[in-house]
From TrEMBL:
Homodimer. Pfam families: YbaB_DNA_bd. PANTHER family: NUCLEOID-ASSOCIATED PROTEIN YBAB. This is Nucleoid-associated protein WG950_02720. Binds to DNA and alters its conformation. May be involved in regulation of gene expression, nucleoid organization and DNA protection. Gene3D superfamilies: Nucleoid-associated protein YbaB-like domain. InterPro entries: YbaB-like_sf, YbaB/EbfC. Residues 5-32 form a coiled coil. It comes from the Bacteria.
Length: 107
C-alpha cells in the first residue's frame, strides 16, 4: 500500500536535514528596514532575530514617537523576514519529501 517504508523514512530524514540546513542558512540572511525619513533602521535575520537597531538622536526626546517608529519599523521587518522564512522552509521541506498519498501539503 505505501511501498518502500524504509525509503520513505530515509526521504523524511533527508527532508528534516534539509530543513535544519535551511534554518542555519537563514541566520545569515539579513533584512534591513528603514523608515522613509531614515530615523530608524532595524536589521534582523530571516529567522526573525533582531541584530541591530539604529535610532536617530532626534527621536530620543519623544518616547511616544520613538515607540511608534519602532513598532512600525519592526513589524515591517518581521513581515519581510517571515515571508522569506516561510518560502525557504517550504522549499526545503518539499525538496526531499516522499510521495505519500494525502500528504501533498508541501507540493
Amino acid at each position: 500500500m505505501f511501498g518502500d517504508i524504509s525509503g520513505m523514512m530515509n526521504k523524511l530524514k533527508e527532508a528534516q536535514q534539509e530543513v535544519e540546513k535551511t534554518k542555519t542558512r537563514l541566520n545569515s540572511v539579513l533584512i534591513d528596514e528603514v523608515t522613509a525619513d531614515k530615523k530608524i533602521q532595524v536589521t534582523l535575520t530571516a529567522n526573525r532575530e533582531i541584530k541591530a537597531i539604529t535610532i536617530d538622536p532626534s527621536l530620543l526626546s519623544d518616547a511616544e514617537e520613538l515607540e511608534d517608529y519602532l513598532i512600525l519599523t519592526l513589524n515591517k521587518a518581521i513581515a519581510k523576514a517571515s515571508k522569506i522564512n516561510e518560502d525557504e522552509m517550504a522549499a526545503a521541506a518539499k525538496t526531499n519529501m516522499p510521495n505519500i498519498p494525502g500528504m501533498d501539503m508541501f507540493k
